[in-house]
Design goal:
Elements lengths: L3 H14 L4 E17 L2 E19 L2 E7 L4 H16 L24 H4 L3 H17 L3 E17 L4 E17 L2 E9 L7 H15 L10 E7 L1 H13 L4 H5 L20 E3 L21 E5 L2 E2 L6 H5 L25 E3 L6 H6 L3 E15 L4 E14 L2 E5 L4 E5 H4 L3 E12 L4 E14 L2
Parallel strand pairs: 7-12
Antiparallel strand pairs: 1-2, 1-4, 2-3, 4-5, 5-6, 7-17, 8-9, 8-11, 9-10, 12-13, 13-14, 13-15, 16-17
Helix pairs in contact: 1-2, 4-5
Length: 445
């Protein structure tokens, strides 16, 4: 680790070198170790350390950025000069609101010494247990187990400074046996919250259940479905990308447009974003250094509000950033939630199965793509544990099936949510989600 004092000194040096009207400097430093396994054996053990400083220079409404991972004095001077030169040649951005003023940032505990000091031997021992259990069942396990430390810090010429150290632990694995497979995933900032043995057994049970006989075909049609949190994560992240950010709402392309305050989803559904919740993987400020706020996005089935950054907040008089800025690059699509939570329910997965006369149990989705944003229409495939439910019991495995489903109408008919919510790592961040039963879900082939 570089440490807060050294990082602050680097940032202050970069700011002092700048000739811009306003300047921002940010450091991200990461130490990551990864143990990868396949065919019941570890085949790769790697460690990587890197750190980068990004400088954003502002002249009026002209903004330029430059980045380097060389922290020498000459490199810092060069990168600051480069950001300034780029800014001078940029067209004006009339919507640029200026760099944010400093605001108090909460100190949130998300650094675990056990995770930070985890050794290759510790990861190997955990992976070995997974592989031995799979081998004993005549199955094969593959996946990756990683531990990491990240330091995030940002400062600007208005006096803003924020620093946050965090650890992360992640295990993702698939166990395969004959024609069947099972999936499991766990993530946390604490080492003891990722139970590698339990996750290995979870994937193994799915693989064994998926291989009791050849998977049956699933006729196209609409079925009640029980979705594990892994599958729910795909739905929630696509709802996020299709309109939980203020830019999509302001441009009229969000599924929330024209529906604010109206109960368009099941009253069982409440979704919020909270970067300070230690049950997830906290990050107390965004990439502009603005403190994160809890935002109720959906309450009792009704969309309430999107998340904001300084750019989108400036478009609405009296609006303030909620601390959800994303790096502005060629993929920038405005602010986005990265710590989503869905309120759990009062059921269990077992009770959901028992209450289903005929339906489909889905472990996770794969290759999910959005067709339209208005109702969050998605298409994709099931994978690694798809089962037919008959008479309130798991009847056996079915072939992976393609689905095409508009999620907003589907989420109006939520039959149950599980009492347990699990942390799930996604493309946009880490989320905490329950299992879900939907009354209708369309499989197309």
């Amino acid at each position: 680790m570089l440490g807060e004092s050294r990082i602050k000194q680097l940032l202050e040096t970069a700011l002092a070198l700048s000739t811009a009207d306003e300047t921002e400097a940010a450091v991200t430093a990461t130490d990551e170790s990864l143990t990868r396994f396949a065919n019941n054996a570890i085949h790769q053990n790697v460690a990587e350390s890197d750190a980068a400083i990004e400088v954003r220079a502002v002249f009026g409404k002209r903004v330029g950025t430059a980045v380097t991972n060389d922290f020498s004095a000459d490199s810092l001077r060069r990168i600051v000069d480069m950001a300034c030169e780029i800014a001078r040649h940029q067209p004006e951005n009339p919507g640029f609101p200026g760099l944010p003023e400093p605001s108090p940032v909460a100190r949130v505990e998300s650094f675990d010494e056990a995770a930070a000091s985890a050794s290759p031997e510790q990861r190997a021992a955990a992976v070995s247990g997974i592989c031995r259990a799979a081998s004993g069942a005549r199955a094969v396990a593959a996946g990756a187990y990683s531990t990491s430390i990240t330091e995030s810090a940002i400062a600007n010429s208005r006096g803003l400074f924020a620093y946050h150290p965090a650890t992360s632990v992640d295990l993702t694995l698939v166990v395969a046996r004959r024609e069947g497979s099972g999936y499991a995933h766990g993530t946390s900032w604490r080492l003891d919250r990722v139970d590698t043995e339990r996750l290995g057994q979870e994937a193994l049970r799915k693989a064994l259940a998926s291989s009791i006989h050849d998977p049956m075909p699933l006729d196209p049609g609409e079925y009640p479905v029980i979705l594990e949190p892994y599958a729910v994560a795909d739905i929630i992240e696509n709802l996020a990308s299709a309109g939980m950010g203020a830019l999509a709402v302001q441009e009229g392309r969000s599924w929330m447009n024209g529906r604010m305050g109206k109960q368009i989803l099941s009253p069982l559904i409440s979704i919020w974003d909270d970067g300070l919740d230690t049950d997830g993987e906290p990050q107390p400020f965004d990439c502009e250094g603005v403190p994160k706020r809890r935002v109720d996005i959906v309450r009792d089935g009704a969309p309430i509000a999107p998340v904001y950054d300084t750019h989108t907040a400036a478009r609405e008089p009296g609006r303030a950033s909620t601390g959800h800025a994303q790096p502005i690059d060629e993929d920038w699509d405005g602010p986005a939630p990265a710590n989503l939570h869905m309120a759990p329910g009062e059921s269990s997965v077992e009770a959901m199965i028992a209450a289903t006369e005929r339906g489909v149990y889905v472990t996770r989705f794969w290759y999910v793509n959005a067709i339209s944003e208005r109702n969050c229409m998605l298409t994709g495939m099931t994978r690694d544990g798809t089962f037919l439910i008959e008479g309130g019991e798991i009847a056996g495995p079915v072939r992976n099936a393609r689905f095409t489903q508009a999620m907003v109408p589907a989420l109006k008919h939520v039959a149950a949510l599980s009492r347990e919510a699990r942390p799930i790592g996604g493309y946009y961040g880490s989320h905490r989600l329950p299992a879900m039963k939907l009354d209708g879900f369309r499989f197309t082939g």
